[in-house]
């Protein structure tokens, strides 16, 4: 039973990556109608950005958490301005092919320079809270940034993993709030429904769409920074993940913000349980679910009929 | 007049004989480097293997003797079906004489069958499965660098001797992982240890926390990683995060390459024990080669044992066909000759190739240095034990290979 709790928690951790990534995809699809296959590559760029910030400028994890999403987000906006915007109104297939091509190029360039094994990135060891000096008394409380872990009774939880779950939950809910509950979000949703009318009210729709793409890309980069200390920073880290994330989006319903968040976490948990009960199937379970959902409810669990 | 005519006849006969000789002595060779150029194993093989092949061609001196040697390279994407399609094309259309590298055990076993069927040659330097020289052995295949039996034998035995008598396996779920787990289990049990469990994970996983928790709960003293490349580095990194080593369990990297250690960094990798048959800093010969190699690599990486094996294997192949006076384009014949001739190069030292196709050389047990002991990039290993070649690999008496006469 204890092992089961542990697997549930671990599943939740993986789920937070799925949620963050599928959220970005859902935002982009919902607002731009583009199936963003470059999402995995942009996620990888976020992780590499963190690596460069640390090794070139000396700026650590906390800076990376802010700077990497902005930097990669700007890269995304340039992509949108120079390439993606010309695809408005065309069949989905064109956006898919373009972004897939971009992903292959970006990954190829990174792999050419950095190989496939990846680069190390450590869990941050600052700020230090409590008495961390070498001659601290026994039992003194000491937190070295997000390093170390705590014993929950049923498992040893690395502090960093706990942080990932909480932080991504906060980001997910904030994004949902921004799009569903604020005035800006209302403009955005209106612009998707009827861009001409929204323009008539004096709102710069193309700029808003560029910013939205930047936001979605920024979310991917943020997930990249979060995963850098857990996985190796590798050029293919996104390619391995993105297929699963697409399945998550399909199961949750394309374009549904809350749907993708909830499905992300839920699938992480289901995958975690599979790893425990039948590990050989852990890479396939998500796709089996996807097939089942598509057969029963083709619009996804929370999707509306088109 | 009579003399003149006979002289003319003699001259013609000589000319025909010389011409005929030139046809018999075909001095063209085509080398195919079949490897993972884009996936998780591309750092330990990949472009580095092609570079090693080029260096072998340059160092062989065969060009000066009138040989014409071409190299082709392809990415098999770790998929046996793609690999056999490429291999078929190479043999039938491109007339490739010899396959090098062929890492990934699943791919290697598939190509092994094809190479035998088509009477080509494979010098396998990348795949681990010991089946290549056991039940699946072939008169057309030489297994050069290492195999699962040797890894299990060296690392497994050393760890059980050091007190690690209960094992839990994290195994990559394909031919290689299964072979490595099977061979290591045999060694552990033979040395008096016990295997108390294991879990099989899909190839190329990114998250190992579930599997590591199961390993932790098993309370085994040794967590044996029967996987490779990116799977191993992620396992090691996440094991340190989940406090596996801090909790008293020891990680055993059954197959670790220098590129993995480089990618992990010494802080995470320090203290790991594992076995390789080549390290750039072993002696003057390996250092000289590795320095030349690294200067030509895009990311200045030192050679892995797989890449070093490509060089060493080709040097021996070139010596053999040079001794034969030409390329007979007959795989089994060349391999038989390769087995007759002793091997000798700067990288793996003196050795032999056994009847079953197993290349024999010493195996080295290494420990990863502490960051404070390392003098700079790529100075990673401390040699802690050497198994002589005749003891490192599966003895012929235990072999199931039909080529071995008993």
Q: Mind explaining what this structure looks like?
A:
The complex is a heterodimer of chains A (306) and B (406). Helix content of chain A is 68%, strand content 4%. Chain A is mostly helical and 306 residues long. Chain A has a single domain (2-128, 142-296), classed as ABC transporter involved in vitamin B12 uptake, BtuC, CATH 1.10.3470. Chain A has a two-stranded antiparallel sheet with strand order 1-2. In chain A, a hairpin with a 4-residue loop joins strand 3 (149-151) and strand 4. In chain A, helix 1 packs antiparallel against helix 8, helix 2 (39-57) crosses helix 9 and helix 9 crosses helix 10. Chain A is globular and about 70 Å long. Chain B is of the alpha/beta class and 406 residues long. In chain B, a hairpin with a 3-residue loop joins strand 11 and strand 12 (349-353). In chain B, helix 5 packs parallel to helix 6 (175-190), helix 8 (230-241) packs parallel to helix 9 and helix 12 (305-324) crosses helix 13 (331-340). Chain B is 43% helix and 19% strand. Chain B has helices at residues 2-24, 46-60, 80-92, 105-117, 148-161, 175-190, 209-218, 230-241, 258-264, 266-269, 284-296, 305-324, 331-340, 389-392; strands spanning 28-35, 68-75, 98-101, 121-124, 141-143, 166-172, 194-201, 222-226, 250-253, 273-276, 343-345, 349-353, 359-360, 363-368, 381-387. In chain B, 56% of the residues are buried. The A-B interface holds A 2-3, 6-7, 10-11, 13-14, 111-120, 122-123, 149, 155-156, 158, 160-161, 230-232, 234, 236-237, 240-241, 272, 275-276, 279-280, 282-283 and B 38-44, 46, 173, 199-202, 204-207, 209-211, 213-214, 216-217, 229-230, 233-234, 237-238, 241-243, 247, 259-260, 262-265, 267-268, 298-299, 301.
